[in-house]
Amino acid sequence: MGAEIEMDESEVLAAFRETKGLLEGHFELRSGLHSDRYFQCAMLLQWPAITARLCGALAARLRAAGVAGGVSVISPAMGGLFVGHELARALDARSIFAEKQDNRLVLRRGFRVAPGERFVVAEDVITRGGRVQETIEIVRGNGGAVAAIAVLVDRSGGAAQFDAPVFSLLRMVPATWTPAECPLCRRGLPLEHPGS
Ligand SMILES: [Zn+2]
Q1: Ligand 1: distance of its center to the CA of 184 in Å?
Q2: Is 123 left (phi over 0), alpha (psi -120 to 50) or beta?
Q3: pTM over cut 0.85
Q4: For residue 130, how far is its CA from the centre of ligand 1 (angstroms)?
Q5: Rounded distance, CA 17 to CA 24, Å?
Q6: How far is the CA of 187 from the centre of ligand 1 (A)?
Q7: Structural domains of the chain, count
Q8: What is the mean pLDDT of each run of 10 residues along the chain (196 residues)?
Q9: Hey, which residues does 145 pair with through a beta bridge?
Q10: How much distance in Å is there from the Cα of 140 to the middle of ligand 1?
Q11: CATH code, domain carrying 162
């Protein structure tokens, strides 16, 4: 089992900044909106030891809330995979994943949900929560139950609602503006295009 050391938001934020999983500056998002912050979780997840530490902290919260006993972990590929895997290690549980096929998430590779099996749905970042909701439906559609949702970053600002408790290490909603309203453009800061 991994070390389960509690981490507060400032420590989690520091881990994101140090790994460049969170960038601060002036960014053009895929939506065309501008923002002063950009999450690229893969930059943090490229470091297994840091990922394990964060997932250990998530596991500690699940245990403290009494939802960790006897669960399995399921995550939506790709981003959720690493969180699911490390969370399962910390919980001494098994980890399976759902992946895209014909533009919807499905279970493949022989992964099964046992009748009544309880799952924690693991994800790296929640924005609108669509992938988490799809994963919840896969679990329930196969006769399982969802005990909790565990994410590193909830950037939904409370917009993503599920009928199971959500545990997150960091809640942050980056400000976004249309280019015409962007105060960073007005200040003449150079625009970056992360992820391209
Ligand atoms: Zn701008």
Answers
A1: 5
A2: beta
A3: yes
A4: 27
A5: 9
A6: 9
A7: 1
A8: 72 96 92 92 96 97 95 95 97 97 95 97 93 96 98 90 94 92 96 83
A9: 118
A10: 43
A11: 3.40.50.2020
